[in-house]
Specification:
Layout (H helix, E strand, L loop, with lengths): L2 E2 L22 E2 L2 H11 L5 H18 L5 H27 L4 H6 L16 H35 L2 H6 L8 H17 L11 H14 L7 H9 L8
Length: 239
């Protein structure tokens, strides 16, 4: 099983892991399991780096994985779609109102809405700065939502939903898939050994060890998850 680890950490980006919550619960991998993973990888020289990668990955999974579950992803995509639509409608309505006094009123800073013809040394510059501060964040928010929607469409085209989210039926065990994904990443970054789902191969063995470290169970068949990750491998930054 896992043991508590102090709250200090170093970001580990090679496996695209970037912890950001200093108050999250940290867990450290059991020594016996780590020893066997190091042996399977043939990575004794990189033991400390490997341990940090596993610890960070487990932290990421425990702290943030719920956001990537099917229900959360579906809700997030729907919210992004609605927010992008609402902002676009607001932008269009403001554009339609640009011919009216309402547009001038809304985009004039409240402190400049006076009876004076020239309340500032450069009222046009002051208004433009206020308009940018007022509408800029909305524009950026719409772009971010549209970018997220486009990314999800691209992932579906690359069959990532089938491999990592699941297109139909019950959602797969996310602990098991995380271990298979992490095992694949560790093989890519820390070893030059062949990656296959063969029962006695290092990839399958490492995935099983990771799952034991995460859950305490050492008798679970993870071949289906290993094969799914091999079929649609995650992007891995080079070591």
């Amino acid at each position: 099983m896992l043991q508590k680890k102090p709250s200090d950490f170093n970001d580990y980006h090679r496996l695209q892991i970037a912890p950001c919550d200093m108050d999250a619960t940290w867990m450290a991998i059991d020594r016996r399991i780590l020893d066997e993973i190091v042996r399977q990888l043939g990575a004794e020289a990189k033991r400390a780096e490997l341990e940090r990668a596993i610890d960070d990955s487990f932290w990421f999974h425990r702290s943030l994985d719920r956001m990537f579950a099917r229900a959360s992803m579906t809700a997030m995509i729907e919210d992004a779609r609605q927010i992008a639509d609402l902002i676009a409608r607001l932008e269009n309505k403001l554009a339609d109102s640009s011919r009216t006094l309402l547009y001038d009123y809304l985009l004039t800073p409240p402190w400049a809405r006076t009876d004076s013809a020239f309340p500032a040394d450069d009222p046009l510059a002051e208004r433009r700065a206020y308009e940018k501060a007022l509408l800029g964040p909305l524009w950026q928010m719409r772009l971010d939502c549209e970018r997220l929607l486009a990314q999800r469409s691209e992932e579906k085209a690359r069959n990532w939903d089938e491999a990592f989210v699941g297109r139909s039926g019950p959602e797969f065990d996310r602990d098991q898939r995380r271990c298979a994904t992490l095992g694949y990443a560790l093989m890519k970054v820390f070893s030059d050994r062949e990656i296959s789902s063969y029962d006695e191969g290092p990839y399958f063995r490492i995935t099983s060890l990771l799952y034991e470290a995460m859950t305490g169970h050492d008798d679970v068949d993870l071949r289906q998850h290993c094969e799914a990750v091999i079929k649609a491998p995650p992007p891995i930054e080079p070591a």
